[in-house]
Write a structure and sequence with these properties.
The protein is an alpha+beta fold and 190 residues long. The chain has helices at residues 47-52, 55-67, 71-80, 162-169, 172-177; strands at residues 2-7, 104-107, 137-141, 152-158, 178-183. The chain is globular, with a radius of gyration of 18 Å.
Length: 190
C-alpha cells in the first residue's frame, strides 16, 4: 500500500457524521456502515456509463451513494438486518470478493489523532496494522499537522502494484497534488 499526503486546497473538507449516540469525538465507533452498489437506494451506473459518460456523472453517483449512508438508514439496517443475524462475524465484507475496480474506502479524518495529548507525548499519526494487503482498499487518515497554515492535507493509503508504483510516484500530475510518503504495508503472505 502506498501512503500519500494530499496537499490542502484551503477549501476544507466535509465528512458525514452519524451521531444519534453522543460519544467522545476521537472514538472511532464500533459500527462500520457502508454504501454498496448492490444494496444502496441509488441505481448503479451501467458499464457503458462508466466508460463513456462524463466524469461528473460518475462523481455524482459516488456522492449520491455516499449521501445514502445516513443515521436513519443505519438505524433501519441495525434493527431489521443486523439484529437478526446470530453470528455477527458473518457480516464481514471482503472487498476482494467484489468485481475488479470495486473499492472499500474508510475515512478516519475526524479522529484528529495528532491533537491528542497524553501528558508525556503526542502521537504523530496512526495506522491500521495490516498483515495482508487486499485489493480495492483506500484508507484516509487525518493530517499530521493540524495547523491551518500548513499545506498538508489528509493522508491516504491505496493498494497499488509494486511494478507500477514508480510510474505513479513520478507522474507530474500526481506530484502536483500529492506527496509520496512511502510504503504503508506489504503483503505478509509473499
Amino acid at each position: 500500500m502506498l501512503i500519500c499526503t494530499a496537499r490542502s486546497t484551503g477549501s476544507g473538507t466535509s465528512t458525514l457524521t452519524l451521531s444519534s449516540v453522543p460519544v467522545h469525538p476521537r472514538i472511532q465507533h464500533n459500527v462500520m456502515f457502508v454504501a454498496l452498489s448492490s444494496t444502496a437506494p441509488v441505481p448503479p451506473p451501467t458499464f457503458d456509463e462508466v466508460l463513456h459518460a462524463p466524469l461528473s456523472r460518475l462523481a455524482s453517483y459516488v456522492r449520491r451513494l455516499t449521501n445514502s449512508v445516513t443515521q436513519e438508514n443505519l438505524d433501519v439496517t441495525l434493527g431489521q438486518v443486523v439484529a437478526r443475524v446470530r453470528d455477527k462475524t458473518s457480516l464481514n465484507i471482503r472487498s476482494d470478493s467484489y468485481p475488479p475496480m470495486s473499492i472499500l474506502q474508510t475515512d478516519h479524518r475526524d479522529a484528529d489523532i495528532v491533537s491528542a495529548d497524553f501528558g508525556f507525548a503526542r502521537p504523530l499519526t496512526y495506522r491500521h496494522m495490516l498483515g495482508r494487503v487486499t485489493e480495492g482498499i483506500i484508507i484516509i487518515y487525518p493530517t499530521r499537522n493540524a495547523d491551518p497554515a500548513s499545506d498538508e492535507g489528509p493522508e491516504f493509503s491505496i493498494v497499488y502494484e509494486k511494478h507500477l508504483a514508480k510510474g505513479l510516484i513520478n507522474d507530474a500530475e500526481f506530484a502536483k497534488y500529492f506527496d509520496y510518503r512511502g510504503v504503508d504495508a506489504e503483503d505478509a503472505r509473499q
